[in-house]
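Let us work through a complete example step by step.
Step 1: write down the sequence.
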Amino acid sequence: MLWEPPSPRVRELIRLGAERAVRAPEGWLEQIDEATLFGSHRRDIADDPVLAAATRRANRSNLLFWAAANVQAPGERVPANVSEPQVLIARDLVRRGLDHSVLDSYRSGQMAALRLWTDICFSLAADRDELRELLDISSRSISAFVEDTIAATAVQIAREREELTRGSNAERLETVTLLLDGAPIAAARAEQRLGYRLGGEHTAAVVWSDAPETALGALDRAAELVAAATGDPRPLTVQAGVATRWVWAHGRPDPERLRPGVAAIAGVRVAVGSTGDGVDGFRRGHLDALTVQRMLARLDSPHQLATHDEVELVALLTADPEAADRFVHRVLGALANADRELVEAVRTFIACQCNASQAADRLYVHRNTLLRRLARADDLLPRPLADAVPEVSAALAVLRWRGGV
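Step 2: predict the structure and record it as tokens.
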């Protein structure tokens, strides 16, 4: 691409605009993220919390890289961004079996960034000729930067794919993918390659982190905790991405034994799938663990650990987050924003099958105290609790996993 430097005046305007872009408000970044992740053809990225978080980091890296370059050298061609966020997303895309075609999402982000940049240009240039030159040079600069970065990332993807084809983890990941896809691979052959017995009862889990500062060793420690909670001395752990581990272990883990250990590992999250027998249980458990992982990400839940047994209903209810919000507000009304003591009284009362004496014992309060709290809750609910126990129970479950009381 022919690259002619802009006039001195437009160079100064680009520098001023780039200084604003370096300090871009969060709303800008959210618009670029939405453009990058939106669309059914990008569902593989948007539904995976690790890939989605990596994409957001890459978007921020790209915006800051281009803006900083134009603060230093306004209007000059910006080299491709090959910084750490780009390398990490390339690595994760390869380990998920995706290719460079998903990088088209960068072009959608480019269009969103260009719209925001245009607003800056109109606020800076009063002269029509200066505005035309400013828009022309900066739009070509953004386009060239994005294309160069896509090309550089595609090269990195090719390198990562070549590296992945070597080594024991690559063989395990390939074998696991065949099993999950239902490919006709003999169980004995799969067991030999995995070093893991496919017979008997399995529980699957996904261990991941969407926090860039999390030490990768922490993911391995969390995977070991999952296995320890089942009592399996020889679990199967596969590195599915830079910040993701897929785990299978024989047996059924005790969530209450697992929870404090996971809580002690900052930045790591664990989604535990269902427990099942044989190859079908191996596959079904993993798919259920992915369902739990996506639910936690969808709700932006603060919980570090969730099991499929705990959240199966909530995952179904929140498949459409906006519909789930409407359901919660319609069923709970003002109770949704009540203090923890009141909400916990209702939740415990329902858990005790509406037995006030048992609920009071569990809460360590007098029965009359519990009854007063339930009466206050009835005043806040749109319908009396006695007429809507199943709906209130489900809405409170959504509220809990969404991060409410």
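Step 3: interpret the result. The chain has a mean pLDDT of 88.
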